[in-house]
Specification:
Blueprint lengths: L14 H38 L6 H32 L1
Length: 91
């Protein structure tokens, strides 16, 4: 029968699209290590701020904790976007 769609047939992806996809995947892989390192640095800042907190007010500990919290939130956003790139590459 002419004109029927056969299951299992996928449209051919152009070589340009394949090259771009490989480039995006390579860039995403290059981002993984710095992202993980940045998360470790933020975690260390949080531990320092918690170590400085003790009885009584400590403005230094609060300042470090605020910076670490803001950086952690930004890194979570970045990681979500990074995971989105991988989800798009796998499709």
């Amino acid at each position: 029968m002419r004109g029927t769609n056969r299951p299992g047939k996928r449209p051919r992806v152009s070589s340009n699209a394949e090259r771009r996809l490989r480039r995006v995947a390579t860039l995403a892989l290059d981002m993984e290590e710095p992202l993980r390192e940045a998360k470790a640095y933020v975690r260390a800042l949080m531990l320092v701020s918690w170590g400085l907190m003790g009885p009584g007010p400590n403005d230094d500990a609060r300042a470090i904790d605020a910076v670490a919290g803001a950086a952690a939130a930004r890194l979570e956003d970045l990681e979500r976007q990074w995971n989105g790139i991988w989800a798009a590459v796998r499709r």
